[in-house]
Amino acid sequence: MKLNRNYVTPIISLIFIVVGTTGTLMFFHLFDGYTEVVHEFLGLFFLIGAILHIILNWNALKHHFKKGVFVPAAIAVGVISIMFIIQQQNNPKVDTIVLERIVKAPIEDVFKALQLDSSEAVKSLEEKNISIEGAATLEDIWMNNQVAPEKVLDLITDN
């Protein structure tokens, strides 16, 4: 199948609008929880679409390379991205701090903080063959069982 601008351009344009809108909603914490999944998955499709767009427009892009405008633009985007990463490392968001502390807290304290019945939470884990034996923290549970952290949290909170 040959790439066709008649399909790639409208699709990437629409995905750009959705990704941009959901990113803005996430920035202002509007509809949190709903926008993230759309933003993340369509972000992957946007990347694929962008690659297809680059392939389709390679000859035109070569002119930008020759003009010397691409390198300064790439440097500017790189510097801005690094600045955001450094800012986030120096001033993490509250949810990041809370999550890091919860996964390293004693299991019984986590159950209390999340208002969970510890026996029900343990039962949910055991039903999925996840052992808490020898684990002092949630982090220990997923490391000992080689399970994704999100899965452990979903199981104990019944999500």
Sum up the overall morphology in one term. elongated
Biggest sheet character: none
Helix-strand topology string: HHHHHHHHH
Q: Could you give the count of β-strands?
A: 0
Would you tell me the structural class of the helices and strands?
Answer: mainly alpha
Describe, in plain words, how this protein is organized in 3D.
- This protein is mostly helical and 159 residues long.
- The protein has 2 domains: 1-71; 97-157, no CATH class.
- It is built from 9 helices and no strands.
- 9% of the residues are buried.
Layout of helices and strands:
Elements: H1 5-27, H2 35-56, H3 58-67, H4 70-90, H5 94-104, H6 107-113, H7 118-127, H8 138-145, H9 149-157
Helix pairs in contact: 1-2, 7-9
In short:
The chain has 159 residues and is mostly helical. 76% of the residues lie in helices and 0% in strands.
Characteristic terms for this protein:
159 residues, mainly alpha
